[in-house]
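Data card: per-record layout.
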Amino acid sequence: MSDYQCETPDGQPRARALGIPLEGIPGPLNAITDVPRFEVGYSTLISGTDVRTGVTALHPRGRTGAGDPVAAGFHSQNGNGEMTGVSWISESGTFSGPIALTNTHSVGVAHAGIVEWTIRHHPELASRWLLPIAAETWDGYLNDANGHHVSEQDVIDALENARGGPLAEGSVGGGTGMTCYQFKGGSGTASRLVAYQNATYTVGVFVQANFGRRPELVVSGVPVGRDLGEDNPMDAYFQLPAGAGSAIAVVATDAPLLPHQCSALARRVTLGLGRTGTTGSHFSGDLFLALSTGNPGAFGRVGGSANSSAIRDLRTLSFVPWDQIDPLCAAVVQATEESVINSLVVNEEMVGREGHRCPALPRSQLESLLAQRLHGGASR
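The structure for this 380-residue chain is written out next.
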């Protein structure tokens, strides 16, 4: 097993380091960056007592491939949230350029930052029109959400800093101020390998986890939330109902898929979140994007002007047949579940706005509970 499957680059334990049983075969990094060319970058903003926020940038084809559209599909489990650009995805089944994840009141800044970055690096794309994808979850328990702390430069920095390879998780980037099951949550990722004919494809998931009530939490099928409920300062926070906050998930695969098949994968995120126990609060905006980097070049713009009478070439797409897509669907469910657990396991306690405190998931106590209920013995 790869070290990065069990630890983040800075040595924080991930779910597999605790021996949590999880289904499926992960990629070498067990991260969305196992998908070839996929890059992720962060701007993390922690200062003073009230600033706990940031930006996560995701490049499906890497920074240099932003002009090549990917097939895509979108699913809204609950629309109390925002993801820009999805009207064009519904219309065309594609999108170009990067994705940014941030806090609720910084979506406009994230949108503008993507536009500016694209103007600098892909002027041919910006010369037409841009409909960037910027999505949010609410970090107002720990962060001064009304303070306009995220700047356009922070977005550009995250886009510039994006790289492949192993990823930091937890309180980084857009996940910095987020909570999950009333523990410290935030950024989490995982991947699965799927064999098909003579190829092996990767399905990667990245979540910005900011949802769930403590009693709901389930890990590997074991309801542990009620037994981990003693230290829960968020329970007394009455501004919004427990469980509010939101979940954003990005699913990426190099398997060649049609746009409607991407939508099918996006819907499976719901099942992965459900495995961790959530019942889906009305005040949790749960929005999911799935994309395929297969068929490079197939969705790009045809040359010539809009009124040109030149003969157009027909395009050819390869895709996994519908009756063989189930392993990819299963991979999304498995990787989503693990991404959420990773976002919890890697984290540490955080104190933020007005002294609000969010405890970390108690790893030793979780290990003991799982050992007792799964194996009938003591933790290792």
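Known properties of this structure: DSSP finds eight helices and 16 strands in the chain. The longest strand covers residues 186-196.

See the next section for split statistics.
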